[in-house]
Specification:
- The chain is mainly β.
- It has one helix and five strands.
- The chain has a five-stranded antiparallel sheet.
- About 15% of the residues are buried.
């Protein structure tokens, strides 16, 4: 799998992984963890790309620049 431009992200609610290109370090750590810019399980909801955290984020302060399909679960 390879990263795709964010403009091509599915807008049908399909969960995807995203690459966060900007945001302050505290926000990046919240969404990605230490020393990463990859965040899992985002989807197009209510006209915006949002993290799927079980609750609606009032303001998403980071901007994904790329996306990729979620990887398949390991077998066996």
């Amino acid at each position: 799998m390879s990263w795709r431009l964010i403009e091509t992200v599915p807008r049908d609610g399909t969960p995807v992984d995203v690459w966060l290109g900007d945001g302050d370090e505290e926000d990046l750590q919240f969404y990605c963890g230490k020393d990463s810019r990859r965040s899992c399980d985002w989807a197009w909801q209510s006209g915006k790309l949002r993290p799927m955290m079980g609750f609606k984020m009032p303001v998403v302060t980071v901007r994904p620049t790329h996306w990729m399909p979620r990887p398949k679960a390991p077998r066996g």
